[in-house]
Amino acid sequence: MAAKTLASRLRGSRRFLSGFMSGAVLGAAGAGLMALQFFRSRDAETADGSEEKAVLEQFGFPLTGTETRCYTNHALSYDQAKRLPRWVLEHISKSKITGDADRKRCKFKPDPTIPPTFSAFNEDYVGSGWSRGHMAPAGDNKFSSKAMAETFYLSNIVPQNFDNNSGYWNRIEIYCRELTERFEDVWIVSGPLTLPQTKSDGKKTVTYQVIGEDNVAVPSHLYKVILARRSPESTEPLALGAFVVPNEAIGFQPQLTEFQVSLQDLEKLSGLVFFPQLDRTSNIRNICAVDTCKLLDFQKFTLYLNTRKIEGACSLHRLEKVMENLKNTGIEPDDYFLSCYEKKLEELTAKEKSETQTRKPS
């Protein structure tokens, strides 16, 4: 329902998804180029350094804190007023999503590069009814413990609906990782949106909840822009998709394509120009036409979650509990699930046997 509401609001624009599907996957080409030309011409006009400018900046211009901040595998721009990222850019590949980095060793914490005056804190989220939602997911950074730990900085976090975080948004993140099986390079930009609502009298307003002592803004929607390349040597066109998802519980029925918008519409909503160095006059394909844009269904997603629980089980009792709970759902375990189960069973059996022998008196 939420998908249809958003789509109907955007469909009035001649630049909506129809342009996407008809081959102009970047209906944004014109607007994006105009925006870039505007910024460049503005910079050229101020480059000469007038006397008036020198007087204006004698004591400095106000600082917004929106400069780009770079980390091991992501970069972001921060909104000091809302205590949220404006955008978070990451690059993933098959090698980056595999490794020994463990999220259990990571803790949510304020970003040390953000002044405390403008930072969110864990206490803001406690008892708020909102989860701490990653924009750059921890699971995209298994190659590096440092990279994964940095995704737990609160500069990469937004207040997110619990079901959305663990459900639909999680499934989108899984799909992005699946793309690395078919594309060598995947760039992803994610962030929050606070969209206007039309009242009964026809007037539009923007209102949003804030949480905690630091008034962390709760976004109404989340966006994700995906740009995929087969390989650096490939002559195949790049694949691109932009999606806007309401920050609420979403079931398994809605398809990802229902939340797809044109890049131009998302830029208009967010005030951002995505991938400004991208040649928008080149042939760029709709990612949902090139790939499936298909998320895990209920059965596969349940198996995925329970496989993760198996990998995290630290006792035979917990391991058997996972297997019991899966059987209660009526879902048959697949070969991968069973292989993970057998491996963990062998590991925990040996561990408990060793502990029993250690406890025996000599």
TrEMBL record:
Recorded GO MF terms: 5'-3' exonuclease activity; metal ion binding; nucleic acid binding; RNA endonuclease activity; single-stranded DNA endodeoxyribonuclease activity
Residue ranges crossing the lipid bilayer per the database entry: 20-39
Gene Ontology BP term (one): apoptotic DNA fragmentation
Gene Ontology CC: one annotated term: mitochondrial inner membrane
A Pfam match: Endonuclease_NS
Required co-factors: a divalent metal cation
Location of the ENPP1-3/EXOG-like endonuclease/phosphodiesterase domain: 71-281
Subcellular location(s) of the protein: Mitochondrion inner membrane
SUPFAM superfamilies on file: His-Me finger endonucleases
Active site: 134
UniProt cross-references to InterPro entries, sorted A to Z: DNA/RNA_non-sp_Endonuclease_sf, Endo_G_ENPP1-like_dom, ENPP1-3/EXOG-like_nuc-like, Exog_C, His-Me_finger_sf, Non-specific_endonuclease
UniProt keyword annotations, A-Z: Endonuclease, Hydrolase, Membrane, Metal-binding, Mitochondrion, Mitochondrion inner membrane, Nuclease, Transit peptide, Transmembrane, Transmembrane helix
Binding site for Mg(2+): 165
Domain DNA/RNA non-specific endonuclease/pyrophosphatase/phosphodiesterase span(s) in chain numbering: 70-281
PANTHER family assigned: ENDONUCLEASE RELATED, NUCLEASE EXOG, MITOCHONDRIAL
Protein role: Endo/exonuclease with nicking activity towards supercoiled DNA, a preference for single-stranded DNA and 5'-3' exonuclease activity.
The protein's assembly and partners: Homodimer.
Family listed: Belongs to the DNA/RNA non-specific endonuclease family.
Protein name, as recorded: Nuclease EXOG, mitochondrial
